């Protein structure tokens, strides 16, 4: 069985557990570094990226999370999790994990549009996907080896690069589990190739 962890330091982690299980994998909430050894992939949830970063430092997760990604184990960053994965954050010197070659802008849709829902086409994943955005970032640029999966109003809101998947919206808050199911498939494939 494939097991996917959800980083449970702050934010919407419990809803991800439900979405992973609905997509046919097992899920655990990761609160301790040692738990990373027992999972095949990891979701970093939405919340507040600065708060999650503070807790990552407090509980000694920074290097273990970087090692996890560099071993080839997939990581899916949603909303604040996308900011944590990025190699560049617009207007900030701070970079958190820096694992995925994307440049992001925080709170990018402005104050008037704190939260909204749209139907998105996500390449290779879903058509008419019900996407919920909450104080969402967007991706300003994707590196050469990355692929844009979805845009909204001309802005990139989902991308993939190797084992890294990132989206601006919250795939755990609706009954539409197709984005999570896509990640589950990525993890199953990586598990097979890591076992070779
Ligand atoms: N605005 C938040 C941040 O910058 C992200 C919001 C979210 O995860 N829903 O961390």
UniProtKB/TrEMBL annotation:
GO terms for molecular function: glutaminase activity; pyridoxal 5'-phosphate synthase (glutamine hydrolysing) activity. L-glutamine binds at residues 47-49, 106, 134-135. It catalyses: L-glutamine + H2O = L-glutamate + NH4(+); aldehydo-D-ribose 5-phosphate + D-glyceraldehyde 3-phosphate + L-glutamine = pyridoxal 5'-phosphate + L-glutamate + phosphate + 3 H2O + H(+). Pfam families: SNO (PF01174). Signal peptide: none annotated. One of its GO terms (biological process) is pyridoxal phosphate biosynthetic process. SUPFAM superfamilies: Class I glutamine amidotransferase-like. One of its GO terms (cellular component) is cytosol. The active site is at residues 79, 170, 172. Catalyzes the hydrolysis of glutamine to glutamate and ammonia as part of the biosynthesis of pyridoxal 5'-phosphate. The resulting ammonia molecule is channeled to the active site of PdxS. HAMAP family: PdxT (MF_01615). In the presence of PdxS, forms a dodecamer of heterodimers. Only shows activity in the heterodimer. This is Pyridoxal 5'-phosphate synthase subunit PdxT.
């Amino acid at each position: 069985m494939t097991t996917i962890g959800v980083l449970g330091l702050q934010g919407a982690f419990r809803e991800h557990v439900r979405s992973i299980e609905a997509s046919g994998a097992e899920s655990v909430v990761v609160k301790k570094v040692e738990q990373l050894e027992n999972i095949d992939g990891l979701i970093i949830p939405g919340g507040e990226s600065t708060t999650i970063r503070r807790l990552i430092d407090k509980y000694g997760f920074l290097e273990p999370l970087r090692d996890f990604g560099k071993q080839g184990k997939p990581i899916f960053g949603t909303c604040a999790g996308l900011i944590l994965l990025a190699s560049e954050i617009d207007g900030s010197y701070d970079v958190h994990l820096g694992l995925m070659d994307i440049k992001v802008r925080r709170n990018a849709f402005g104050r008037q549009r704190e939260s909204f829902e749209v139907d998105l086409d996500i390449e290779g994943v879903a058509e008419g996907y019900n996407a919920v955005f909450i104080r969402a970032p967007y991706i300003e640029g994707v590196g050469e080896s990355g692929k844009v999966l979805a845009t909204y109003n001309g802005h990139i809101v989902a991308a993939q690069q190797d084992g890294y998947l990132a989206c601006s919206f919250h795939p755990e808050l609706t009954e539409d589990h197709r984005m999570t199911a896509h990640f589950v498939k990525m993890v199953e494939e990586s598990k097979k190739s890591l076992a070779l």
